[in-house]
Known about the structure:
By secondary structure, this protein is α+β, with helices and mostly antiparallel strands. The chain folds into 3 domains: 5-112, Butyryl-Coa Dehydrogenase, subunit A, domain 1 (Orthogonal Bundle); 117-225, Beta Barrel (Butyryl-CoA Dehydrogenase, subunit A, domain 2); 228-372, Butyryl-CoA Dehydrogenase, subunit A, domain 3, CATH 1.20.140. It has helices spanning 5-27, 33-47, 65-79, 83-99, 104-112, 227-263, 275-303, 309-334, 344-357, 362-372; strands at 117-120, 136-139, 143-154, 161-167, 177-183, 189-192, 205-216, 220-221, 265-266, 269-270. Strands 1-4-5-8 form a 4-stranded mixed beta sheet. A 4-stranded antiparallel beta sheet has the order 2-3-7-6, with helices on one face. Strands 9-10 form a two-stranded antiparallel ribbon. The longest helix has 37 residues, at 227-263. The protein starts with a helix and ends with a helix. Residues 88, 119-122, 127-128, 152-154, 196, 200, 205, 354, 357-358, 360-361, 363-364 line the site of flavin-adenine dinucleotide.
Amino acid sequence: MIEGGDRADALLRRARETGRALGARLRGQSAGKEEHARALYDGFVKAGYHALLLPEACGGAGLGYASAGAIYEELSYHAIGLMPALLTTAHCAELLKIAGAGRSFGYLERIARGGIFGFCLTEREAGSDITGIRCTASATEKGYLINGEKSVVINSSIADFFIVIATTGFQKGRAGLGAFLVDTTLPGVERFGPECGFGFEESVIGSVRFSDVSIPGDSLLGEEGNAYFQVMESLDKGRPLVAACCVGAARRLMDIVTAHARQREQFGKPLIAFQGISFRLADLATRLKAARLLYADALSLIDSGREFTMEASMAKLFASETLRDFAEFALEALGHRAFEDGSEVRNIFNDAQLLISIDGSSNVQRMVIASQL
Ligand SMILES: Cc1cc2nc3c(=O)[nH]c(=O)nc-3n(C[C@H](O)[C@H](O)[C@H](O)COP(=O)(O)OP(=O)(O)OC[C@H]3O[C@@H](n4cnc5c(N)ncnc54)[C@H](O)[C@@H]3O)c2cc1C
């Protein structure tokens, strides 16, 4: 039994089947992209996978990180393309929990009821280095006015709320950043996209412009100047979960490639009989196992309240690069079949490239690890 009791066990047992069923719905889609993405998210909500880490008092499943990671891995086996929506809402929930502001509870309840959140951090000029953020939150008598533009926002056009990282202008760089809750229906919020033309075809990713968006004073999560540390902590906690998703998708590739290598014969033998293929699979199987141990270790450190920053980055770095390398090998091993329309391997290959960037690129993970040595 995994940590988290019977509820966690039941969710884990159903996870792969839920991912498979939702993944299969992609192929029969007729609705528009937003409508479809929302319906898929609602599928997760109905099955109970959208609020694994939320406290039971807010309507969540109340699971620990280790349990949630094992479930994310299973969901990702068939549905890696659907995971960004879940990961983003989980990330925003974490920010709300970290900020611990009085209003957070109500927003956590909204998430538990199926509300979708988007995280607005990245800008054209501010990617890996978020101290370059130009989006502003100017204090007014009633609260704040938000102005600026954000890029590559997962859930952009289906989110009910955004968490926007903006500079309050009192201090420069990281000390000037604040995190603000913004209702996406407010006047002045414009959403563009979906814009991502490569990978995560089932997710909506776009940009958002904020023009004099007026928000109440209690929309500030925590205190002005705290956002940098809130964001870093929430990203740290999210990284092993992204790693778990990578492991789930890599296990799917392992099953697809080994089945193919056993069945496909060339030169009078199945492909798996050639060491050029079987040794690559042996290396990848070893890396896959190591990736799983790394993410499980980082998540259990979080659960036990110990320091986990370095382990979280190691897990993300290793698992996402293992998935990317596996996906490249899978394209090679399947030959021309991998390039056919609707090829699962091709989709995972595209998603794998994007998973490298999410929650900090590989080099950012290396910077974090190096800083902890
Ligand atoms: C699919 C997808 C979804 C995303 N979703 C969201 C979202 O929902 N919300 C959001 O706010 N953002 C989102 N992002 C943005 C993501 O967080 C950024 O892409 C990431 O932070 C990197 O920023 P950048 O793309 O501007 O690259 P850059 O920061 O310009 O980096 C480009 C390259 O340079 C390298 N690099 C940068 N600095 C250094 C250094 N000091 N040393 C060595 N190498 C370095 C990086 O590793 C990278 O390989 C998403 C991105 C993708 C691809």
